[in-house]
Structure formats: structure tokens, C-alpha cells
Write a structure and sequence with these properties.
CATH topology of the largest domain: Rossmann fold
Largest sheet: 7 strands, parallel
Strand order of the largest sheet: 3-2-1-4-5-6-7
Order of helices and strands: EHEHHEHEHEHHEHEHEHEHEHEHEHEHHH
Distance between the termini: 12 Å
Oligomer: single chain
Shape: globular
Length: about 400
């Protein structure tokens, strides 16, 4: 069986590890299938964020260029996978950007023609737009069955009064399978009256590096990172976008400081909101309580998980965020918003963290305070996500593909 994966997120040989979760999935699936990954690389930088954040425009551009370099290279450690980086014209991502899928299709149609797509070939698109729309058009052109995987923002921010919504209906109707990283996203599809067919939906979770994200000695790690052992450490990792609500987290730190004078917030990641967050830090005199780490390499990321007392993700919307699973694998409790799949993972009764109302400083302060005071069993925290082991996730993908081309 041949799988042609279409995605805008995949590592490119630089220090930027964008799309590592897809990389891991492809790497493991390549042991069972012949896989080609077509990586869509936009040629236009993010103009709207640059113009709305002029002070940080150059930094935003440099981050974009690191993520989408002119000459991307195949990442190390992945064998027997054909990786094609395909440049495409991606218009500014406004509310009803109907055309990006068409531009993606134009970018990759000639590449699809050159591939062997005659026997047992499946297109697998991550996200509805632009990947799913491109797969929909390719299906009409070449009659190749396709799978589209819902990731979170593609469904959560889909407005029902747009051409994009009408296109999403066509994608759902013609896809051979619609998969999702979470049951909650399927529930959102039902709420938005998207045509889900129960006979062709399935869950396909992310493959996590359980052998790398492990529990380490917190005292030794803090010494290594030069973090005072007496500090109360909250850790955030993710893109600095409005979606992630890091401004809400920053305001919460200002209130928590009254009860925990030794509190520290470490922020891993870059993004368009960094300037606004720094303004809040200055406004609330948090310069000594908040540290920006930038994008971290995997080893450093694991260290900071283990150094933390709590991992926090106060997002407005999510599917199933990799970071909360990684934190739990490292034996760190999670305080996160009641959105997406998070309430199915973070269970206060099972004692692996707390759920908060999104956009609520009061709720976040309350739950972070409880989490910081509680003595956690780190091994139990790790065991709470045992069901997402590699073997189980691979079976999800195999079952999905076999429903399109049954094993003879």
C-alpha cells in the first residue's frame, strides 16, 4: 500500500522542529507502508502579523524563514520515506481564505502525476485547509481515495457562513475516511452540522516518544538549568499566538505572585504575540518572574518539563495538544483549558491535573494554586496516558487504511 501524506508541517533540516508529531508518525508507518510526504512550503511570509506587529516584524519574518527555508533539507533519522518540499502561494490566512487549497493543489498536482498512484494508493491530508481541500481536488482529478485528519483549529474556527464551510462539506462527503486526534472534534463537527458518516470515521492519535519523554530527577535537572530549588515553577510550551492565551497566563502569574512570591513562569516557543506578552510583563512588574526560552530542542524541552511543578496550557481551542501528553509522560501535572480533547485526558478524579475555563484569569489562578500546593505521584501521572502507547496508535492507522483497502 502507498500512502501520500500532504502537510504544511514537517521538519526541514533546520533547528525548527515544526511538525515533529507528523514526522514520528510517518517514521513508524514507513515500516509497514511505502510513504511519500509532500510538504507544502508557503512562499509569502505572514504579512498580516508583520503589519500588525511592526515592532517585531523582522523577528516574525526570521522565524517564518526558519520554519520555511528556501532550500529545505530532509531531516535526519527517517529512512525509506520520499520527502518532497513543494512551494505554494499561500494567501493571507483571513476568515474565509477559500483559495489556499486551490493554490496547494496547483503546487502539487504535477508531483502527484510523477508518482505511482495506480495500485492501493491513499492520499492522507492533515488539516481541512489547505491540505484537505487539495486532496479533495486531487481526488476529483486522479480518482485517488483520500483520508483527512482533523487537528483542532481547522474545525474549531470554521465559520458556517462561508465558502470555506461549503468546501468542508464537500470534503467530508467525498473523503474515504475522516479521522481525528480527538472525539471532541467529532462532537464539534456534529454541532456545526458537518456531514459525518459513522461508517467512515476513526480516531488516529499522535505517536509520542515515550522512550524520550521520561521522568528525571527534578533536583538534578534544576541544578543543571540553574533554577533555584525553592522556586514554584510553571512551564508553558507552544506557539505564542492569541489562540494559546499566554496573556491570560501572564495575568494569572501577577495574581499568584501575591501568594507565591517565589513563582516563576518559563515560556518555551516563539510567535506573533511575544511583543504583547512582554508589554504585560512590564505592566505587572514580572520581569523577574517570567523567562522566555525561545524554541527548545527536544532534550532541553524534556529538561524543562521535569524542572516544572506544573505545566499550563490555557488555550482558547485545541484538539489533543502534544504538550500535555509530553508533560504527563515526564510526570508533571497539567492545568489546561476545558477545550477539545483535554477534558478526556485531564481527569481531576484520576488526579493528573485540573481543568479551567478558557479566558478566565480567576479559574486559572484557582487551579494553578491548587496544583502548586498538591503533592503529586509522578509515576501515576505518567501511567495516566499509557493508552497512547505506540502499538495502540499504529493499530489505529492500520485499521483506518484497511477500511479503504482491506487486506487480502
Amino acid at each position: 500500500m502507498n500512502i501520500i501524506w500532504i502537510t504544511t508541517q514537517f521538519p526541514n533540516g533546520t533547528e525548527n522542529k515544526n511538525g515533529m508529531f507528523i514526522y514520528r508518525t510517518v517514521r513508524e508507518l514507513s515500516k509497514y507502508y511505502s510513504i511519500t510526504v509532500i510538504v507544502l512550503h508557503p512562499v509569502i511570509p505572514p504579512l498580516i502579523p508583520m503589519f500588525t506587529n511592526l515592532r517585531y516584524a523582522i523577528k516574525i519574518y526570521k522565524e517564518w524563514k526558519l520554519r520555511f527555508p528556501p532550500k529545505p533539507k530532509k531531516p535526519e533519522g527517517i529512512k525509506n520515506v520520499n520527502i518532497i518540499y513543494s512551494k505554494f502561494l499561500r494567501p493571507p490566512r483571513i476568515k474565509d481564505n477559500f483559495w489556499e487549497g486551490w493554490f496547494a493543489y496547483i503546487s502539487i498536482k504535477k508531483k502527484i502525476k510523477k508518482l505511482n498512484t495506480k495500485n492501493d494508493t491513499i492520499l492522507h491530508a492533515t488539516w481541512l485547509f489547505p491540505e484537505g481541500q487539495a486532496a479533495y481536488i486531487l481526488n476529483k482529478k486522479f480518482k485517488i481515495p483520500y483520508v483527512v485528519t482533523l487537528m483542532g483549529s481547522d474545525v474549531n474556527y470554521l465559520d458556517t457562513n462561508t465558502r470555506k464551510y461549503l468546501q468542508a462539506i464537500n470534503i467530508f462527503k467525498t473523503a474515504s475516511m475522516v479521522t481525528s486526534v480527538s472525539q471532541a472534534l467529532f462532537n464539534t463537527c456534529i454541532e456545526k452540522k458537518l456531514p459525518l458518516d459513522n461508517r467512515k470515521i476513526s480516531l488516529t492519535h499522535t505517536i509520542y516518544e515515550t522512550e524520550k519523554f521520561i521522568i528525571l530527577d527534578k533536583i538534578k535537572i534544576r541544578d543543571k538549568l540553574k533554577i533555584n530549588q525553592n522556586k514554584k515553577v510553571i512551564f508553558f510550551a507552544g506557539a505564542l499566538r492569541k489562540l494559546k492565551n499566554v496573556d491570560i497566563l501572564t495575568k494569572s502569574i501577577a495574581k499568584l505572585k501575591k501568594f507565591f512570591p517565589n513563582i516563576m513562569l518559563y515560556i518555551a516557543g516563539n510567535g506573533f504575540e511575544e511583543g504583547n506578552i512582554k508589554k504585560l510583563i512590564s505592566e505587572f512588574n514580572l520581569e523577574n518572574n517570567v523567562i522566555f526560552l525561545g524554541n527548545l530542542k527536544p532534550d532541553k524541552l524534556i529538561d524543562y518539563y521535569n524542572a516544572a511543578d506544573v505545566f499550563c496550557l490555557p488555550s482558547k481551542n485545541e484538539g489533543l495538544p502534544n504538550v500535555i501528553i509530553e508533560a504527563l509522560l515526564c510526570g508533571v501535572p497539567v492545568v489546561a483549558s476545558k477545550v477539545g480533547e483535554i477534558p478526556f485526558i485531564i481527569n481531576e478524579q484520576n488526579k493528573n491535573g485540573f481543568i479551567v475555563e478558557p479566558n478566565s484569569v480567576e479559574s486559572l489562578v484557582d487551579k494553578l494554586s491548587q496544583a502548586l500546593k498538591k503533592n503529586w505521584d509522578r509515576e501515576s501521572l505518567r501511567k495516566s496516558v499509557d493508552f497512547l502507547n505506540k502499538k495502540n496508535v499504529l493499530e489505529e492507522y492500520k485499521n483506518t487504511y484497511q477500511r479503504i483497502f482491506p487486506v487480502k
